Amino acid sequence: MATGLALAAAPHVASVTGSGTVEEQAAGVGILLQISMLVLSFVLGHILRRRKFYYIPEASGSLLIGMIVGGLANISNTQKSIRRWFNFREDFFLLFLLPPIIFQSGFSLAPKPFFSNFDAIITFAILGTFIASIVTGLLVYLGGLLYIVYRLPLVECMMFGALVSATDPVTVLSIFQELGTDTNLYALVFGESVLNDAVAISLYRSMASMRTHHSGKNFFLVILRFLENFVGSMSSGIGVGLISALLFKYAALGVENLHNLESCLFVLFPYFSYMLAEGIGLSGIISILFTGIVMKRYTFSNLSDDSQRFTARFFHLLSSLAEAFVFIYMGFDIAIERQSWSHIGFIFFSIIFILVARAANVFSCAYILNLARPPHCQIPRQYQQALWYSGLRGAMAFALALQSVHDLPDGHGETIFTATTSIVVLTVLLIGGSTGTMLEALQVVGDSNRYCQLYELQESSNGNDTGYTGQNYDEGASTSSKFRSKLRDLRRSTSSFALLDRNYLTPIFTSQNGDCNDNTTESPNEELTIFRGPGDLEVHD
Length: 541
What we know:
75% helix; Na+/H+ antiporter like fold; mainly alpha
């Protein structure tokens, strides 16, 4: 009897073992593909940077590698098995790949250009994203009424406008650094791209809630909800950063035998900030961004020298790997995902609509900002054009488009996903590849750019951060008492936080004096060194 049961169970055991072996082989092939593509991406990025070939930026190269390998897997018999282990999932992107990228961005960001341009960054990120989202949604809806594009309900058009308004100019920013673009322009492009991801997510979720509950009241609560979300997320991130500063100041972890513990705790705090914000319904993106800024300003100086060197290299390495993997991941999934090419008109006109919406975003916000600014602080026209050109779409738009496939009826989500995929590929490859030519045409690089020189001159004359400093387009009025009064008021208002930081925050949260700590942020060009692409293997302390 026992022998019979054993013989009867044997085929079942064999089948289970065989099934497990097949799955393990598929997992191994998927992991091998990922590692191979990462290696190829870094090597290609290094070669492109050595050759100074800007027409194929590192991020574009990573995207192309993923698309090529995904295309090969799609036409082979291994496509189905590999897809289980190598597929773009929104939760994996938001929980594991995005946090190190955002933290390193805030950790390496120069506080002076960022906060001196904070009003402009907030305006572009919040008001500008609202404008771009609404304009895109309305144009798509009107196009559907005129039967020039695939017709979608108004709420779904607004969802599409929200998800496609998320910018990801990693490709552009890498070339900005290579060519020596002004730090203020860099801070504007970078700050807007980071914060507008949170706006896009909030808008998309709000529009999805409107569609689910069929309630028009949610539309009027979008602004209030986002402001609550932004302030709460920022407060959460700053709070975690300040708590970490106090911990490392008073815990005496800098002794030789506690360096590993010190480094481990420092590495855990950013992820704690991100998960805390997500867990209480806030934006982890905004939280971890401000945690990175605060930890670099206060916590980092409380570390031992060995821990400072390790953490700086560790986060740089982690963000480089995550950034490269995101574009490979995205390119691979674009190639193997089933696309809906039955509505080519929707794709074509969507590209035109987002260009129009981006122009409405940048130029209207810049006009409002310039109305409230003195002539010497206004955003020049060529910087506005560079901002408009820098509105690439990337991983965030792609992740939200994937989510729309599950949120919307059959056919609608697939159409939006295909359109978003086309927009991402075209903007990253075409716009990213022509960024160098654009910057030279606008004369905002090299010796033709006086912006950074004026910034440094005003810094040295004042000894404080004076705010957004641009070219003086009103030289005739520079000697008037009215101009001097405005300049004096501007200096007084923008230096108040610097005085608060120097006299109170720095002594409380760091073990160094204000003058010593200021040295870490006096050079915007050094602090703005973040991940430039897979080829960026340098570490700037």
